[in-house]
Amino acid sequence: MDLLQKIDDYILGYMDRNSFFQVYSFSNENIRAYTKFFDLKRGSLCTVGSSGDQAINAKVAGCRDIVIYDICPLTESYTYLKLAAQQTLGRKELFMFLNGRDYSYGAYRSPSFLNPITFKTVEEKLKRINYDAFQIWQTIAYKYPQEDIEKLFRKDDKSFPEIVRCNNYMRNDHEYNKARKALEEINIKFVTDDIKELKTEKEFKTIWLSNVAHHLEPEDITQMAKNCSAHLAPGGKMLVCYFWQSGMNIRGKSIEQLSELKVEEKTIRGAEGIFTKDSIYVYTRKARSI
Ligand SMILES: C[S@@+](CC[C@H](N)C(=O)[O-])C[C@H]1O[C@@H](n2cnc3c(N)ncnc32)[C@H](O)[C@@H]1O
Predict the structure, then answer these.
(1) Does residue 48's CB lie within 6 angstroms of at least one atom of ligand 1?
(2) What is the 153 CA–ligand 1 centroid distance (Å)?
(3) 73: Cβ below 6 Å to ligand 1?
(4) Which of 1, 239, 249, 258 has the most crowded CB, counting CB atoms within 10 A?
C-alpha cells in the first residue's frame, strides 16, 4: 500500500519532516465553547482535521453530514482508529492509547501508546469500521517501536485535563458514554487535499477552518476564505480562525487578509484552567431574501 511505504519513508527520515504528515492526537481548540455559534443539529459540516475531534464533537452535537478536508494523508485512517478506540476503551485509556503524554510519565509516552496489546482490543472494531485503516494501524502498531511511532504524531500535544476541557465527548464518563452511542454509526467523507482548493457541488451549513490560517501565506488565507465561503449555504457560518487568549501570531496577518469577507470576532469563555477567554472569527453568508 502506497501510504504504508510513505509511513516507512517518513519514519526512516527519507521524507521531508516539515511536510504535513503528522497527526494531532487530540484537539486542544476550545471546540466545546465555540460549538454554540453554529447550527449543527441535523446540519452539514466541512472541517479540517487532523485529530478528528471537530468531526466527533459535531456528530455528537447532532450533525449528520460531515466532510473532513486535510492535507495530511494520515487523517482519515487516524480518525477511524480513534472512532474504533472510543467504542472499545475507557476515557482515560483512549487518551493513553492515542496520546499517552501524562505528567505521571514525565516526558515519556504511556506504555499503552499505540502498543500491540492495546491495539489488539481495538482491532476487531476497527476492521469493521474501515478495513484499510485497520491494515495501516495494525502494521504501525506491530512493526515499529513506540519511539518510531511517535514520529507520526505532533510533539505539542496536550495533557489529559486540557483535552477534557476542550472536547465535550471527553468531559466525563457520562458524556463519553453518550458519545459512544452517537458515534456507533458515523459516516464521514474524507478528502486528502488542500482546503484552499475546496471543490465540491455541496453547500454546507457550517465550515470550520479552525487553526489552519497560521500554516498559510497571507494571500493564501484570502484564497482559502473566499473559496470556502462560496460553499456555504445561505445563512451558513464559517469559522475562519481560532485564537487562544495567548493571541497566536496570526491575528494581524489574518484580519487584514479577511477584510473583504467582513468577519466578526466572537469571544468565548476560555477552556477552564487554561485561559480566561478565547475567540474565533466567524463569517456568515447572507440568507436568501424572499
Ligand atoms: C494546527 S492543525 C489543526 C488541528 C485541528 N483543527 C484539530 O484540532 O484537529 C492544522 C491542520 O491543518 C492541516 N492543514 C494545513 N494546511 C492545510 C491546507 N492547506 N489544506 C488542508 N489542510 C491543511 C494540517 O495537516 C493539520 O492537520
Answers:
(1) yes
(2) 13
(3) no
(4) 239
